[in-house]
Amino acid sequence: MADQKINMNTVWYKDAKGDGRIKSDNLQTQIAIPVPKGGSGEGAEPQQLLMSSAVACYTMTLAYMLDRKKVPVAGFFMDTEGNIAKGDQLSITHRPHVVLNSGASNEDVTMAEALILQAEKDCHIGQLLVKAGVPVGTEGKVSIDSGDDLTTNYIEEHRLVW
User: Fold this and answer.
1) How many CB atoms lie within 10 A of CB 59?
2) How many secondary structure helices (H) and strands (E) does the chain include?
3) Where are the alpha helices (DSSP H) in the chain?
4) pLDDT in tens, 48-77
5) Given a cut of 80, is residue 13 above it in pLDDT?
6) 3-class DSSP state for residue 106?
7) Which residues on neighbouring strands pair with residue 9, listed in sequence order?
8) Please, is 140 exposed, middle or buried when counting C-beta atoms within 10 Å of its C-beta (0-12, 13-18, 19+)?
9) Segment 130-145 mean pLDDT
10) Which residues fall within 8 angstroms of residue 97, CB to CB, at 6 or more apart?
């Protein structure tokens, strides 16, 4: 595999209570030091950025695997919870919910359930975190579309529209 180069640009405004920006080809975000550490809290903090990498990797890995196995997916959404214990020990739990098309079979459900677990093992970022001592777990759910459009409801409920 060829080497890959990723370039990012960063700027910081003012002191610890200021904020910054990170930009790359397909990423733009505001960063800030959390309030409990003396910052403004008006941007993503390091743990959120780390978790967002794990979330993105898991999501794309699962989407790819479901597609490759031709599982009839109507959509899926996921909540991910990070817990930070004493000593800054982070743990991450993904809770994906895969919604299958109304004509999905029991075999499709079984395959989706298996891929939910396999995606955790195949996600490179998640595995890097595990090697670094960060517990990463998955508690998934599969349902068959009943006409309620659960994915759109999730998008609206969590304001995931830009």
Assistant:
1) 18
2) 4, 7
3) 46-68, 106-122, 124-131, 150-157
4) 999 999 999 999 999 999 999 999 999 999
5) yes
6) helix
7) 23
8) buried
9) 95
10) 76, 77, 78, 140, 141, 142, 143, 150, 154
